[in-house]
Amino acid sequence: MASDKSVYATTAKPRPIRVPKLHHATFMTMEIDPMVRFYEAVCGLQPVFYSEHAAWLTNDEANHRIALLRIPGTKPPVDKPHTAGLHHTAFEYPDFDAWLDNYVRLRDAGIRPAFCMDHGMTMSIYYADPDGNGIEIQVDNFHDWGKSTEWMWASREFSEDQLGPQFDPDKLVAAREAGLDHDEIHRRAYAGEYRPAVEVPNPAFPDIWAQKIAANPALLDGVPLPEGA
């Protein structure tokens, strides 16, 4: 005879009643200051605590969203763009104009993206931080997480292509100056109208460590251990 009891009465609780939410990401680094300057410029993250060996940064009400640790013994990565591990972290703007204005501000400050893609649910600009970690700055194309989630789950387009076309962000800037709105620019970008002259294969973030080590071979020794260790 089948039991009329619920699964919660007959088995251990499958998960917490209140699920946790993503709070922060932590990076090991060999230099704190360049990373702090990058994340402040690109994402508006400011240090809550900042020292030579660690920093905790936030851009909202949380006590931190990014942590940076300069741990003794840390060494440079090998072939970072092509090894397993974290690919990128992402930050979202609430509207298209703020998102594109941020690109223009960074471009004019000499900070250029590694590649840009219209994924369908988002338009996304990807940067590499000073350690070669990927950072995505995105805007939702549906103006609503529920709608973009449904599109990812149910659309034929996303089932066939989870990346979407690359785009040249300066072409988006020109399109906006010509009077096109977010929806029309997204439609054209997703159709491939704003592709860059040269696309990034795969796409992959640049491998910056060979150049950094060539300029400073002492990096291969890693972050120095404390005296007497």
From TrEMBL:
<dbReference type="InterPro" id="IPR029068">
    <property type="entry name" value="Glyas_Bleomycin-R_OHBP_Dase"/>
</dbReference>
<dbReference type="InterPro" id="IPR050383">
    <property type="entry name" value="GlyoxalaseI/FosfomycinResist"/>
</dbReference>
<dbReference type="Pfam" id="PF00903">
    <property type="entry name" value="Glyoxalase"/>
</dbReference>
<dbReference type="InterPro" id="IPR037523">
    <property type="entry name" value="VOC_core"/>
</dbReference>
<dbReference type="InterPro" id="IPR004360">
    <property type="entry name" value="Glyas_Fos-R_dOase_dom"/>
</dbReference>
<protein>
    <recommendedName>
        <fullName>VOC domain-containing protein</fullName>
    </recommendedName>
</protein>
<feature type="domain" description="VOC">
    <location>
        <begin position="21"/>
        <end position="140"/>
    </location>
</feature>
